Amino acid sequence: MQDDRGRIFREAWIAGIAEHFPGTPKDSYITPWDETPGWERACASAVYDYVADFIKAGDDTAKLSRVQKGQFVAVCWREQVRKHVAEPKPSHIPAWNDMPEWWRQTDCDIFETIERHINR
Fold it and tell me: Are the CB atoms for 73 and 111 separated by under 8 Å?
């Protein structure tokens, strides 16, 4: 079910924010799944699917570095935002090196959360 996959992604995002974000995050960063905008839920579900398919198709994602895992999530997310938002703000689709550290770490956490979910 789309909601379950997207919800796992969103909950991993919120957990990552709680762990890595310096200070108090914007409300939109920690909005619960049921209050998340539709376009964002669609992106979350699609990225979950990309990561899950990658994990299932690969030899052993444990061989990937944490950074490689996060970069995969970041690329998938960026392209989903471009697909669902006509003119996304540049701050919503940064390149990996332009992302703040908390965001990079959160994307790494998202991949690893999905990996655990798939491999259980």
Answer: yes
> Above 80 in pLDDT, residue 1?
no
2 has pLDDT over 80:
no
**Distance (Å, whole) CA 5 – CA 69:** 18
Residues 6+ apart with CB under 8 A from 76: 46, 47, 50, 51
Contact status, residue 36 vs residue 61, Cβ threshold 8 Å? no
Structure tokens of 37?
Answer: 């905008």
Cα separation, 107 vs 112, whole angstroms? 9
d(CA 96, CA 74): 7
Q: How far apart are CA 67 and CA 45, in angstroms?
A: 21
Per residue in 23-62, pLDDT tens? 999 999 999 999 999 999 999 999 999 999 999 997 778 8
**Cβ burial 25-42 (10 Å sphere, 16+ → b, else e):** eeeebeeebeebeeebbb
